[in-house]
Amino acid sequence: MKTSVKDEVQSRRTFAIISHPDAGKTTLTEKLLLFGGAIRDAGTVKARKTGKYATSDWMEIEKQRGISVTSSVMQFDYEGFRVNILDTPGHQDFSEDTYRTLTAVDSAVMIVDSAKGIEDQTIKLFKVCRMRGIPIFTFINKMDRQGKPPLDLLAELEEVLGIESYPMNWPIGMGKDFMGIYDRYFNRVELFKDESDNPYIPLNEDGELEAGHELADSQLYEQTLEEIMLLSEAGNEFSEERIANGTLTPVFFGSALTAFGVQTFLDTYLKFAPEPQPRNSTSGEINPVSEDFSGFIFKIQANMNPKHRDRIAFLRICSGQFERGMTVFQSRTGKQINLSQSTQFLADDRNTVNEAVSGDIIGLYDTGNYQIGDTITTSKDMFQFERLPQFTPEMFVRVTAKNVMKQKHFHKGIQQLVQEGAIQLFKTVRMEEYLLGAVGQLQFEVFEHRMKNEYNVDVLMERVGTKVVRWVEDDKVDENLSNSRSLLVKDRFDKYVFLFENEFALRWFTDKNPDIILYNPMDMK
Ligand code: GDP
User: Fold this and answer.
1) Residues forming a β-bridge with 279
2) What is the CATH number of the domain that holds 167?
3) Which residues line ligand 1 (CB under 6 A)?
4) Dist CA 498 CA 490 (whole Å)
5) ipTM for the whole complex
6) Ligand 1 centroid vs 337 CA: distance in angstroms?
7) 521 annotated as belonging to a binding site for a ligand
8) For residue 36, is pLDDT > 80?
9) Of 174, 197, 434, 495, which one has the greatest count of Cβ atoms within 10 A?
10) Tr-type G domain: from which residue to which, for each copy (predicted)?
11) What burial letters (b/e) apply to 394-403, b meaning 16+ CB within 10 Å?
């Protein structure tokens, strides 16, 4: 059945999961895909992560199931919605691409391990969501294990992340005493260990279980009621508007491993998560249902196989409708490009492909045409979407060409890879040494690999270590302030940047030099 672009766009929900490794991202993703019917067996996504299947097996599996589980985008249909989950690689794969993925989503789901609370990587990813002002939904996981008291976890959200919360449901006990959740939104209790088909017990008008239910007399339930009362009196008020602007996070408790609370989460999430929103461009706001096709590249994946130098550029569609073989403008260069060589991260079936609209992600074969942040559009205006934000690198290497005779190739390679957004380049002010900055080790490895394979240059990379990075507001700064603990460098736009040895060095410096205004582009507003 043919539906309008408007209907299609309204059905899209595109999000990423932000979490620290081991919080349960893979497990939750898998459970969500199960509900969406996109996979039949639990363990499928997990097996991919642990490399249990060879890639060819995966391609077979993808064909059978009509979804791509190996790629960075997973899609499923559920209750009239089309859900896109974008993967945010962590661990060793953590890179600027992980951050950039967050520029391509309309909301984020933050998973918190109930025993560990808010962890490092979660904080970093949260900051990027904050910068964009997108809604953030919190899933507190592993309630089947003993964790921190729920009220402490809410306090942590506020103290560590500076975001207020509204618990949509509340746990009744935890660990081996975990009985289920008290659902404030659906006004029901959902039982954890339930033998019957229906784990839901409706609550009465006062939000209580009818007397006589065995749980009604339990101490754990009593405690939950007390805490609910406390939340109602002293907690934040529910506000759809504040959820939408990302200043209030709805909080859900559950256990991804046992699939408990996951469907409740999904149902509620879909009620409040935004459909694709208009985006700013050089021609003003671009409406997602407008006729002209447009989108931007947020990630370029290089092929690590030296026999295949092609890459895939990931495009987030922002308006119009994608059609295979369509001709578009690349706004940066004004060049026309035919998109016959596009790949879809979904079933290889015409209908699905033709339905790709705002919110969806497509992969474009790239022979070196695209840069991160590029806009492509059918509009003659050739507008460009807002530049992607600058992310603060944390680790640095000093880089030189192994063979001095290869300087020309070396410079060309660096220029191109930096422009493409693969890595950030800095030059020390005195010696004009090249430093590369990244948010994860993987970026250096990809850089080294591509320099060798695409520019035929062996590079030497010398570890400089992690730094606390601050840009200088002013265009002038006394270059004599540069020393080993506060190294002054210039970024590729010739802006001054200090690389501090650690937080302490930063504080010492700001105390001594109160006139120099420093900023971190990723600081929370
Ligand atoms: P990721 O690194 O965030 O993708 O985390 P995984 O989904 O791989 O989970 C990390 C570990 O936590 C695995 O051993 C999971 O089985 C376990 N895990 C995930 N969710 C739960 C949960 O709800 N309860 C318990 N007890 N373990 C969980």
Assistant:
1) 286
2) 3.40.50.300
3) 19, 21-27, 141-142, 144-145, 255-257
4) 8
5) 0.99
6) 43
7) no
8) no
9) 174
10) 10-277
11) bbbbebebee
